[in-house]
Every structure is written in structure tokens, then in C-alpha cells.
Records
---
Amino acid sequence: MELQLIFESALSRAQKFDRQDKMRMRKKIRDELFSLLTLELPTPTGIMNRWEERFQDLFEAVPYGLKDELLNMLIDKAKFPTL
């Protein structure tokens, strides 16, 4: 949920996308976060590499620092996994 909130806030700050693009991007984000649950032993850098490929247009449109924020959150979650 925290990851979805970070993506959502970044998407709302992105002025490059119109309403329809944002809706498509939200669906793409939800699908990607859901598929993240099915990965077996994902690493934070592996997840970021995957997201950089799939969300290239989003990362280009949002303010600088989103990648770092996401990577730091993934590293923190990897240290202390919750059930």
C-alpha cells in the first residue's frame, strides 16, 4: 500500500500526462505491484530495474528523487519483512 501511495502522489504531480494517461498508468502500477507479490525472493535492485523498464515514461515525467525514494523504501521493507 505504501508503494502505491508513493506512485500515486508522483503521478498526481506529473503534469505531462492527461487524465486518460494517468488512468492507464494507475492500472499499470496496480498490475505491476500485484505481480510483485508473485515474485519469489525479489531483491530491491531487481525490482527497481524491472520498474525502470516498465515505468520509463513515468520516471521521466515525475520530479527527480522518486527512484531513490522507492529504492530506499524497498530496502527498508526487505530488512524488516511483514507478514
Note: The chain has a mean pLDDT of 84.
---
Amino acid sequence: MDYIKFYRFRDSIVVIVSFIVIDTGNVFAQQQQGTPNFFKDRFISSAGVFYCKPSILPAKNSYLGLNFSPQLNLLNSYSDFSIAFGTQLDMGYKLSSADNNSKFLASIPAMATINAGHLATRDFFSRFGLFAGGGYDFCSISGSTQKGFMWTGGMRTWIFRRSFTLRYTQLVLNDSKIVMNLFSLQLDLGAYLKSVYKNNVISRFVKPMRK
């Protein structure tokens, strides 16, 4: 009889422990599913080409190059509005070769932007969007390192079902002795844009019904 009681007691303990393990696993699974990914929900980027023409520079050289603009939304509570921290990595090559200095241009600013409408977040609904901001820039021009303030602004929209950014950036370097003007056309990156495009199309039919 003692053996029977022991086995019953053992089986009861096993069942109770099993329920506890299963229930604990479900709780952790629910927590993991419910916890949003901070960077995945807030990170947005675009890449493209730029043309740079100085308005104030000892040598009147123009540059052509590639750039990449990542941003991390700090305020992400609204679908069509955000405040973001980001940068604009520019790498260019001098079009003219009148001097023997380095022909490369590199720019790495740290900036904050206000974004409204198109691509303000990963869940935007607007077809058009605007953004503006500014910050501090570290730039290498013709082998010489310069630094100073910068500001940027532009618009975003759909073109042939792809999201594009048209950006203007001005670098005011070396106590305003050097002023560079950059004009960029960038393709907005991210597989999520396909689903957002569908949301945009649906919203065009839903909005008139809301009135």
C-alpha cells in the first residue's frame, strides 16, 4: 500500500510541475509576442544619388556621388508625424580636375528632423510628405576636414509604386567660409513599403466614407 501511495504522490507532483512549466512557457511567449521591437518599428532609411554645387568655396568644384540617410524615430506615436534622429552619409567625386587636391567629398552629419505625412513612420497613410531639420556636420573636402552646421528639407511621395525622397541639404562650414548645396534623389528602402502602399490605396476609398 505504501508503494501505491508513493507512486500516486509522485504522479501528482509530475502533473502539477508539468502544468506549471506549460503555463510559465505560455506567459513568456505572450510577453515576447506583445513586446514591440523598438528599432524595427522606428528605423527608416533611404539611399540614392546627389549632386553638390558650392555657392561659397575657394575652388568652384561640383561633386556627384551616392548617399544613405538612416533615421530613428524618437516620437513615433502618430502614423503621419514623427520627430527623428538621423544622419546623411554622402560620398562624392569631384567632376572637375583643375587642381591636384583630393577629388573626394565625404560628409557625415548628426541631425534631427520633423517628418509629416509620407514616410513619417512605417505605418503612414499620406501620399505626400514633408520633412525639415538640421544639425552639425563633419565634412572632408579636397583632403581638408571641415565642420559646421547644416540644415535639410524635402518631400516624399510615391512614384510608380515606389517611395522616393527628394532632398535639399545645405552645409555651412568653416564659419560660413564654405557653403555647399546638395540635391538628392533617394529611393526609400524597406520591404514594409509594399504593405504600406496597399494601405494607401485602401485609404483613398475609405476616407470619403468617413465624412
Note: The helical segments are 2-34, 38-42, 192-210.
---
Amino acid sequence: MDDVFVIDDFFDHALLDRAKSEMMSTGKHEDFFDKVGVFKGKLISQQLKLTDIHTPCISEMLAKIRSVFDRPVMFKEINYQILHLPWDIHSDWFESDGSESYYNLLIPLEDADSRTIIFDQRSNHTNHFYIYKQQNPKVEHPVSQDFWDKNLSMCWPEDRLYLTVKHACPYQRKGQLVAFKRDYYHSSDSFHLRGVKPKHFIQILVDKEREL
């Protein structure tokens, strides 16, 4: 399987609408405020954790997702996010007992002129980019200043010198399935500077059996 792939119109819009209603009925989103990052003290996201809650529509979506993979997978985290400000550079790799971080899935519930930027840099030791920078040199040909200014201006300026772009995903469209390996560092784009309203999407963290 490709390390990064995007499948347009993977989910029926009516299914996503029903799933959204079901998710909203299961509980209340919790506010996530940035504690130490570039938006310190500001509301970044509202999150509704659904890992142990499989509504009929979520179960249908998970069954469809399983058909994409050529091996059995485990759904370690299911999260309905309302993203108010962009996540800056991070990965979603985590150490896990008995399984191994595999793919990060993003499922837009609404169209949004915003995209995820995935970098070539990766680590299976830490999801924190500041630690990666401590352990790795700057790259010879980093992300161009022009691309950075247009898409990633909210990130720490010095981060650019350690990064090269692997893939700039298309703008989020309802029905898409966006997937990439969890050990790749990535970032939201600077959608908040273009008047884009908060983004509604489901994030699913997928694991596989640990390889011996």
C-alpha cells in the first residue's frame, strides 16, 4: 500500500450525515487549548472521543475502511474533531502494547478549502517534532520559503529548515478518505488566515499487529 493515499467519494454523503447526527447524540465535545505550542492559550479543537462507541453508522464506516487494507487492522482511536485553528507540525505515532502504529485516517464531514501537508521526515521514536530536531540535522533543500509562507506560516519558522514536502493533500471534500502512515510528520495548512470556518472531520488512528 502507498504510504499516502486519498480516495475521493469513498463515503456516501448521506452516511456521513447520519454518522454526524449519531456522534453528536453520544456526548459532548471537549475543548482542547494549546498549552505550549504556537497558539498557546487558544482553543485549537473540540474533540469527541468515540473509540469505545460504535454507532451503526460508525460500524458501517469501519467495515468499509477495513476493505481498503490488505491485512487486519485495529482502530485505536476514533475522534470527531471540530478544528478551529491548525495543528502545527507533529506525527500521530505512539508506542502501543501488542500493536504498532500504522495509518492516520481523515474523513471530512464538510467541504473545507484546507489541506494536510505531509513531510518526508518521519520517526518511530517520537511524535514531537522538537525532539526530532534535537536528534537530526537540517536538510540540504528545505521547504521553499514561498510554499512555507503560503501554507505553513503559523508554524515555528526554524522548523522549515528540517523539512521537505512529501505530499500536499487536496482540499478536504466531504466523502474523501485521506490516509497516511502515522510516523510521518505533518501539519494542517494555515486555513485560519483565509477565513475558512472550523473544519469538521473524523480522525481514526489505525494500528496493525506488531511485526517480529
Note: The CA atoms of residues 49 and 79 lie 5 Å apart.
